[in-house]
Amino acid sequence: MAADLYGDLVRTGLGRKVVSSLHLPNPVRLRRYAPQAPLIEGPVVVAGHGAAPLASPITSMLTSSAIDVLGEVPADGRVGAVVADLSAAEHPQDLESLRAVVSPALKGLATCGRVIVVGRPPQAASTAAQSAARQALEGITRSIGKELRRGATANLVLVAEGADANVDATIRFLLSGRSAFVSGQVVTVGDGQPSQPADWARPLAGRVAVVTGAARGIGASIAEVLARDGATVVAVDLPAAGDALASVANAVGGTALQVDVTAADAGRRIVDHATTRHGRLDIVVHNAGITRDKLLVNTDAARWHSVLDVNLMSILRMNEVILGDGGLRDGGHLVLVASVAGIAGNRGQTSYAASKAGVVGLTRALGSDPRLRDRGITVNAVAPGFIETEMTARIPLGTREAGRRLSSLQQGGLPVDVAETIAWLSQDVNAGVTGNVVRVCGQSLLGA
Amino acid sequence: MASTPRRAAILGGNRIPFARQNGAYAQASNQDMLTATLDGLAARFGLAGEHVDEVVAGAVLKHSRDFNLTREAVLGSALVPTTAAYDLQQACGTGLEATILVANKIALRQLDAGIAGGVDSSSDAPIALDEGFRQTLLAANRAKTPAARARALARFRPRQLLPSIPQNLEPRTGLSMGDHMAITTARWAITREAQDELAAASHHNLAAAYDRGFLDDLVTPYLGLTRDANLRPGTSLDKLAMLKPVFGRGEGATMTAGNSTPLTDGASAVLLASEDWAAAHGLAPLAFFVDGQDAAVDYVSGDEGLLMAPVYAVPRLLARQGLTLQDFDYYEIHEAFASTVLVTLKAWEDTEFCATRLGLDAPLGSIDRARLNVNGSSLAAGHPFAATGGRIVASLAKMLHERGPGSRGLISICAAGGQGVVAILEGA
Q1: In a domain, A202, yes or no
Q2: What is the span of the domain harbouring residue A19?
Q3: Of these residues, B180, B334, B401, B414, which one is catalytic?
Q4: Partner residue facing B221 (CB), from A242, A250, A259
Q5: CATH label of the domain that carries residue A55
Q6: Do A278 and A170 have their domain in common?
Q7: How many CB atoms lie within 10 A of CB A63?
Q8: Domain range holding B377?
Q9: Strands A255-258 and A232-237
Q10: How many domains does chain B contain in total?
Q11: Is residue B95 included in any domain, yes or no?
């Protein structure tokens, strides 16, 4: 991985002076998750508009996690996070409540603090004014994300009517270090039957998870994080990557399965391995992916096909078995890996962008598939932005620096940031979140 | 006290791709290769942090520092440090002999799960001091006074600086294994064409096995190698026919580099367990170990060929099991040389040989050649001596599993010193 020299420089005394006098980007070391650490260093201000129906469940969740909850910004101004419940907003004039809650909290917001706005989905609004107010929350939240500095993030949670009880896992995720590189995102929480983990430090205990493309990079990190959260991991990668794959599997105490995801029987072999070896299949992370970057003008059919086959069509084929009888259990979780390139497009990455945009479309379709909804299976995607991996280390320096800095968090993310988001989407307590595409991009300006 | 023998199951195996001498693994030691192989096995079967009772493996070409090779490899691997391990060595029979030992211990309830394996590096070979120089140094070490030490060291001669490099020679005859085989090949009149045909089939069969993914769960890449370096998918009878004979002399010389196995580096391991252990770990047996048999021939003072021992071992095994040579779905006859396999088959078909040498009323007869080494053997994969047994056991077990319960496979491996090891597996 190429060293983030600039990121290191700004953390030195001289570097800080230069950066602040020239108004250069000033990235901080992000707060990342540790199982025993508190969700967030408080206090957390929870307030909202009108009856603020979600404020009370969120307050009791935080209180039970021993976090100091306040109704307004304290006298010293220091705040770990602010949660603004605008779910009762009926009219754009109600947005003043959001300003009144959040604005005073920003000045004293802690390093890597959090702003969480809670609302209702605009699509379900009963009046035009209500829809306008609800949609406004997205613009507000994204703008706050861009205003925040020092590793703080802002995200919007849209809770469907009747799904208030399902919001726990998402609020926990967004407050915690798990969401270090997630900002400016909208997470929609719907109905579902969440079950609380016995131990929040091991929310995936007893679960069996398959991770494709697990031999290195983001895939290896996903395997590590799922295992840390308690899952037994089946690490899948190409036979030719078997030695690196074996190291990953042994490090996480899982098993290695050497199979090319494009093989006709890949889905069957994956399901058979998980169910015969480990007795069940709870989580599948379709992470395997390749790039064969070329300008479209120079792309031949073989290159085009290989990217689409590995990144998208293999998922369709494997899902026939994974989502079929005897595959993923009811209430299980499918997580796909899209990319900001699939949202924003990238010069020289037409085939890659095609495959990753396809993953977004696939995620939305499966997320609203009534048969999967009936079975309680959630399907979500993460869309990584600039992540520090061997792949991005090969990008030329100028482009790489631009990729790192052109985001609200002014730095590249780490593979673990993608992995933490996937681990959250793999929790049973998260049953209300499906069909979502969550960017892990530090609120990159690309495709925003 | 439970003392009834039980069946030992073969759950699977792992090997690294075999490399040609001084190729990809030139810098890898036996311990490096065996450790990597155990790690691959642990990953495939989820053994990291699991208890496995014993690991039994060995190497033929071995450094004196590797006196505890297998245990050291275990300590460097993902297996728990409380896994017992020891070395076993029977030349090219090492891997299969280790399998028989582990299977027998499981059958006798002395073990629940064990790993049998083998490794050999022909590249990282031990080099010994000249024997005279070694005696000089030992004498100097024994000397009690400086004067005596000086006298002892004075016996040193510069030519003793030439190291002694291990050679593929039989100590009692001074002939190489190939030279020995050439004698037997000529005696049995095995043609060059038949040998080349067998060699080509070995390459084509192994290449096809790789292509259809058969080795996906048998091999773990190592040091950049993803397939056996010796494999020549594009070889043909024409290409093989162009090679000059390297063993035997004159007109009758038929053995070439193409129909003999090259010196190779590699390692393999097989996981065996009781059915209970397998079930408790969610592992389905691929095959069961049925029986094994050793034999040796007098190739020094008698007139039997060096690599003929398996020919003698098989009828004893068949008689004990009440089986005929035709009762098998697959035959795995180690291709030390193409002619080794062909002589073995011819001897079993020979009425007089079977009567006079094997003491049989009737010859064992011929086999269906379509069942022989169907996924290739040592001519294509290469033959790191002690690693060949594990390669064959794991591969045959998988073939039998695909074939179905009750299917049967015969393994035959010849070894230096006029020895042979054979075994029967049954599909689970």
Answers
A1: no
A2: 1-27
A3: B414
A4: A242
A5: 3.40.50.720
A6: no
A7: 13
A8: 177-212+290-427
A9: parallel
A10: 1
A11: no
Residues of chain A in contact with residue B43, where contact means CB-CB under 8 angstroms, are 235, 245-247, 249-250, 255-256
Is the CB of A26 inside 8 Å of chain B's CB atoms?
no
Distance from CA of A369 to the nearest CA of B (A): 33
CB A97 within 8 A of CB A89: yes
In a domain, B247, yes or no: no
Chain A residues touching residue B45 (CB < 8 angstroms): 255
CA–CA gap between residue B278 and residue B104 (Å, rounded):
16
Within an 8 Å CB–CB cutoff, is residue A241 touching chain B? yes
Domain membership of residue A195 (yes or no) is no
Q: What is the 3-state secondary structure (H, E, C) of chain B?
A: CCCCCCCEEEEEEEECCCEECCCCCCCCCHHHHHHHHHHHHHHHHCCCCCCCCEEEECCCCCCHHHCCHHHHHHHCCCCCCCCEEEECCECECHHHHHHHHHHHHHHCCCCCEEEEEEEECCCCCCCECCHHHHHHHHHHHHCCCHHHHHHHHCCCCHHHHCCECCCCECCCCCCEHHHHHHHHHHHCCCCHHHHHHHHHHHHHHHHHHHHCCCCCCCECCECCECCCCCCCCCCCHHHHHCCCEEECCHHHCCEECCCECCCEEEEEEEEEEEHHHHHHCCCCCCEEEEEEEEEECCCCCCCCCCCCHHHHHHHHHHHHHCCCCCCCCEEEECCCEHHHHHHHHHHHHCHHHHHHCCCCCCCCCCCCHHHECCCCCHHHHCCCHHHHHHHHHHHHHHHHHHHCCCCEEEEEEEECCCEEEEEEEEEC
**Angle of helix B30-45 versus helix A242-251 axis, rounded to 10:** 70
A249 contact B CB<8A: yes
Instruction: Answer yes or no: do A5 and A47 share one domain.
Output: no
- Whether A116 and A248 map to the same domain: the answer is no
CATH number at residue B392: 3.40.47.10
* The total number of structural domains that make up chain A: 3
**Residue A194 is assigned to a structural domain of this protein:** no
Tens digit of pLDDT at every position of chain B (428 positions): 567 899 999 999 999 999 999 999 999 999 999 999 999 999 999 999 899 999 999 999 989 899 999 999 999 999 999 999 999 999 999 999 999 999 999 999 999 999 999 999 998 877 777 888 888 888 888 989 999 888 888 888 888 877 776 677 888 888 889 999 999 999 999 999 999 999 999 999 999 999 999 999 999 999 999 999 999 999 999 999 999 999 988 778 999 999 999 999 999 999 999 999 999 999 999 999 999 999 999 999 888 999 999 999 999 999 999 999 999 999 999 999 999 999 999 999 999 999 999 999 999 999 999 999 999 999 999 999 999 999 999 999 999 999 999 999 999 999 999 999 999 999 99
Give the distance, in angstroms, between the CA of residue B6 and the centroid of all CA atoms in the same chain.
Answer: 26
Which residue in chain B has the smallest CA separation from A257?
A: B44
Same domain, A254 and A106: no
State whether A60 and A156 are in the same domain: yes
**Within a domain: residue B377?**
yes
* Positive or negative torsion for Cα A54, A56, A57, A58: positive
In terms of domains, do A170 and A127 share one? yes
